[in-house]
Amino acid sequence: MSTPPLSGRDLLSLSDLSVDELLELLTFAAELKAGKHHPQFPQKVLGLLFRKASTRTRVSFSVAMYQLGGQVLDLHSGVTQVSRGEPTSDTARVLDRYLDVVAIRTFDQAEIQEFADYASIPVINALTDLEHPCQILADLLTIQEEFGALQGLTLTYLGDGNNVAHSLLLGCAMVGMNVHIAGPEGYAPDPAIVKQANQLMQGNGHVLITTDPEAAVKDAQVLYTDVWASMGQESEAGQRLPVFQPYQVNDALLEKASPEAIVLHCLPAHRGEEITHEVMEGAASRVWDQAENRMHAQKALLASVLE
Description:
Enzyme class: transferase
Order of helices and strands: HEHEHEHEHEHEHEHEHHEHH
Distance between the termini: 14 Å
Main location: cytoplasm
Organism: Leptolyngbya subtilissima DQ-A4
CATH superfamily of the largest domain: Aspartate/ornithine carbamoyltransferase
CATH class of the largest domain: Alpha Beta
Strand order of the largest sheet: 7-6-5-8-9
Catalytic activity: carbamoyl phosphate + L-ornithine = L-citrulline + phosphate + H(+)
Radius of gyration: 19 Å
Largest sheet: 5 strands, parallel
Strand content: 5-15%
Helix content: 40-55%
Number of domains: 2
Shape: globular
Number of helices: 12
Family: Belongs to the aspartate/ornithine carbamoyltransferase superfamily. OTCase family.
CATH architecture of the largest domain: 3-Layer(aba) Sandwich
């Protein structure tokens, strides 16, 4: 296939893509992984502007760009004037003159939106407190590899209604997957995101927000979890443990899902908390394929916006 028509585009949210563009991007990623295409972008430079810690996102973006023949500048906030209070608008207009594409990991979604408003180069959301679109590209690629198709499947996310839950709601809704989110009272996803997901479904699936983990996993083909306290919430970890314990992905809960169910986790994992060691290392786990697919999905995205 040809490169998806995303030249020069930003990806701040999965909803920035049309359904066709999302599906084309997943197909392109699968073909890149299979070695069917070898796009090259020599002399192109990717900037990584990260205010938060990162392993998979930082390394997968870097390797993807190197494989595309480009270069990477790691611009973590400690080595830039961002840490001394330089306005986002000023940073954006300067980096716009140096870089060809930038991936930003930060706290506030408004910050990445402001950067995109002042920069003409493609801006990619590498995680904010609201969304994590690049993670979900890899997740959908992994599910597609396993089942051959996406529409009609059911994904159950167990835990905190955080940025990953938000992007799962949007991404799954766009491809016609049912989405179940199960978590404690008071930790549900943003109602505005839930409303947006329902609108994106267009009658091709359903969204379920519940506090009942067993009801949520019934007949689900994909069980998904994340840490119970996201970056910036570490001080709440202790008080969250007993509240979230019923939502642990363990063998007992897995048995209540579809017999063909797979388990995903965006990592890093706290084994013994949101997921047991046995499930993480068990036959249903696709966690390591999912982690690898971060690189392939982001490689497809970079090639598409640089084309």
